[in-house]
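User: Before I run my own analysis I want an independent prediction to cross-check against. Here's the chain; please return only the structure tokens and, at the end, one sentence I can use as a sanity check.
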Amino acid sequence: MRSLSNFPGLVLAMILALFSVDVVTASSDDADPRAGLVTAIEWSEDGLFLSYTNLGTRHRFHLLTGVREVLGRAEDVEEPPRRRSRRGRGGGGGQTGTYVGRPTRGRQYTQVDSPNGRWEAHYENWNVVLKEKESGESIAVTISGNEDIHYGTASWVYGEELGQNRAMWWTPDSQKLLYYRFDDSGVEPFHLVTGWSEFNTVHYPEKYPKAGAKNPGAELLVYDLASQEVTHIDVGGGSEEYIYNIRTSPDGAVMLVNWTDRLQQHLKVMAIDLDTGACRVVVEEQQETWQSNSPSMRYLADNQRFIWTSERSGFSHYELRNLDGELLNSISSGDFQTAGIDFVDEEQGQIGFRAYSSPKNPYYMQYHIADLDGENLRRVTTLDFHHSTFHLSPDKKWLVAQYEEVNTPPSTAIYSTDGRLVAKLAESDPAAAANIAEMFSFRSSDDQYDIYGILYKPKDFDPTQQYAIINSLYGGPGSNEISARYAPNPRSENNRGYLVVKVNNRGTGNRGKAFLGAAYLRLGDIDIQDHADAIRMLRERPYVDGSRVGIVGFSYGGYMSAMGILKHPDVYTAAVIGSGVTDWRHYDTIYTERYMSTPQLNPDGYDIGRATRKDYVENYKEAGGHLLIMHGMVDDNVHPNNAFQLIDALDKGGAPYESRFFPNNGHGLGRGAGSTQWEFFDRVLRPDFRGRRTSL
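Assistant: Structure tokens:
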């Protein structure tokens, strides 16, 4: 007798059509927001049943008939052996040696042992040295390294902005060593001082290329142990290009390197011929704004084909390519952003992935399945809610997913993977919602986009009262400020009696390339405009006190906080600037030029985005705002002169401010920053302190 699990797809569809989604009723616990959650999901070996626990009770659901039965209390039911679905293979690498130690931020490993365990490669005194473990023999691969020209390490900016924490790589056969040659001559050092709390300070210079200035030049070289010869890798490099992300294919047969131009609009993934040093293009992409530096490559079992994440359509989508440089086919398409591969099943020729594809809300996650040849693409989770916590059956026919909204507690549904809602396994009662978070939207000032945000309220929120509001933000390119998941608990700021607003401004991620690139060449302009416009809309509500609005952020968020109160002093009453950039000419080449080009090519953009402008200071002074600047004195990422130049501009303009500097802290301010921030906000935004100004 043939099992029902082997019925053809058309027959399955006919069977499913006989049953209503309401066959499975929700768990009855109106007061418990966990009523919609299921745990301990198990699929039967014959593919006919799903078992799960809801509120301590074990249930079994017949996948083809939709009938559910209660098995008893979860602790009394013997669970079947767990069966896990198979997953595809991940991206390659890991064959370039064993890296020893742990580099600090922006630095590289100083030792990598060969895959066969025989050799150690060391970075010592600007040079590369090989040591044979057994004999102790030492080979000086390079001898001319110095402070300007160095080998086996990288410039700080490569580590910080490209994530390049390796600068030496063994070939999988342990016969050759690739290594960086960096030319920092002409790169101006930034001079920091450490030991501010000691009796004497220590000079700490760092070669730090600032936007538009001389950049470090990188090259790749390869040393052959047998011939003791060095070959130059012809991949480009130099001060107007970047070469990075050196790795192997999973089987170690091909060594790859990424190349991009200085403005990071053109990306090439190159395969290296280790014998000749020649390189050939495997895949390349170009953008009018900027191209992602390291798109994912997920290899198939043959180690030749890979799934590439492309942005050429204006959204991130998947393509099937091979290492010979051929595009085999597109896998996904549409006006939505993919968000990660969940599985690759080569036997069935399928791929499952997550994507922001709901027409109702661009931040609602959905689940998709497609054939690897690009056919039969379908959205599985058809409800227009945010989905997460996915459980796919081993036969890829069924999907259990949690669905929710910001103010709707999660429920759980089961879908057939042809895109049919089969049943709601457990439902929460909307009346059980915490009612402390609300997603809102408004039209951008250029009338091109709907901008989304979330307003968080205290647990004891009273709409008849008026509240101060804090705009807590980061807002940098490609970041994400909000989540569409249910918010069961208030934020810490709410517990202090504040409303809190978070906004996904233009330039943030998950919305496609046009939305992401809207802030290109305009940092500190339209991004902060969206936050200010959100406050302008919210202050029309009777419970929002528009005269008590704070803004706070750190790093890029500190920059946004500065631009908020300086460009929109009619909106913001008080601002905390933590470790923030105040002029993009202070920041490094790779990050800054990716989004702003160079000061030479984009002078107006750099000027508009400069917090130290005289007219900004004058507007802030006239509005009578409150400003707190906090910075670490040994911050080698966002240098303290960002804070000093803003203070100088405020002093020259006679504008008030407060400041706190941390003598031994870098980019992270550490202990004391939080208490200082809240003392400031409570003093200037609480009703009993409203209108008062305190000088330090």
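Sanity check: The first helix runs from residue 9 to 17.
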